[in-house]
Amino acid sequence: MLITHDTRCALEAVVDLVNTAPEDESAPDGLPDVAALTDFVRSHQISDVGTLSEFDLSAVRKVRGRFAAVFSAAEARIAAGLINELIAAAGTTPRLTDHDGYDWHVHYFAPGASVADHLAADCGMALAFFVVAGERERLRRCEAPDCRRAFVDLSRNRSRRYCDSRTCGNRLHVAAYRARRKEAAG
């Protein structure tokens, strides 16, 4: 599956956005305030975003919840419906642009759109490409029992199971190894 630079950036943004959501009521929110949202926008080089406000923070958190539902959807039809709602509500307006030293690419948000609509449109379209390509199963949650972080499996054979093989994957492999050794010794 060919993934363009702008689609890859949108995928990274949507995964990072979904992963800012607290896992439960006791966990802290990864977007606790407007400053954190501003840092998120800056770190993902989201263009055409003006001064952010509490309203933007609230709207982005709502969009984040909708994206989280896409990653948790049991089937493609459910994910497609959620994505359709997101991009329709954002007032998707595809247009070609070549800003900030990048070659021609497509933005799906309307000029002057809020940061929430920007994320809904661009990230929604990036996820839509996976559904259209029959690759929705690549939108996953980590299989580690104590981690449910979202990720996009871009491995060639669709075999990635953990959000990070160096942390979640390695931790589970070490635990399994120790359990086998204990059983053998025992």
UniProtKB/TrEMBL annotation:
**Which intervals hold domain Zinc finger CGNR?**
138-181
InterPro entries recorded: ABATE, ABATE_dom_sf, Znf_CGNR
- The organism's place on the tree of life at top rank: Bacteria
Q: Name one Pfam family in it.
A: ABATE
What name does this protein carry? Zinc finger CGNR domain-containing protein
Could you tell me which species this protein originates from?
Streptomyces fumanus
Q: What is the lineage of its organism?
A: Bacteria, Bacillati, Actinomycetota, Actinomycetes, Kitasatosporales
